[in-house]
Structure prediction request, 88 residues.
Amino acid sequence: MNGIQRFMGGSPGQVLLRLIVVSFIVGIVLSALGLTPWEIVDKARQLFFRIWNMGFGAIEWIWTYFLLGAVVVIPVWIILRLLNMNRS
Prediction:
């Protein structure tokens, strides 16, 4: 497998065909939900500007969610690692 195929995950033709099919299916689902491409772009832009305008408040907001998740994820990960050590 050459560099471009390794990067793309297959031959360019196959990858292009898969992307077209998946894009069509996602387009049908989003259309059924009443969304347009411009609404998605606008919402992403609004999210970016909201985070930008929050400044350091955004950092605190992200840090709070990170800590909240880490309180659960880290102990579970440690327990799973310890259990897997005993199986080896």
